[in-house]
Write a structure and sequence with these properties.
alpha+beta, three-stranded antiparallel β-sheet, two-stranded antiparallel ribbon, 14% strand
Amino acid sequence: MARVVLEKLAPGMRLDKPVCNIHGVLLLKTGEVLTAKHLEIFKTWGIREVDVVREEGAEPESAQAVAVPPEVLQTAQARVAHRFRRVDPAADPVMAEILRVVTERLAQELATQRRA
């Protein structure tokens, strides 16, 4: 079993524990294999992490992070800073987390595009 944050979840992972929404309603039961649609449902309901079973030494390919060169990370940081220039992440921890996730995803996307 491993507790995995939403950003690291990938289709093909199997749930080790059931996932419920904030009202206690069951979204997915133990043993379900995650799909892209499930991940979108988790985002919609604000599910930040779930418990999954990892196979011996195997992890879905999409869960493996793309290496991001420093210059690509700087480009992503600059783009995000420009778009969110009116946000003070030091004053709002929720916005700080949003900025971190957006920057990480943009950097991953830019690094992937760069490889192609």
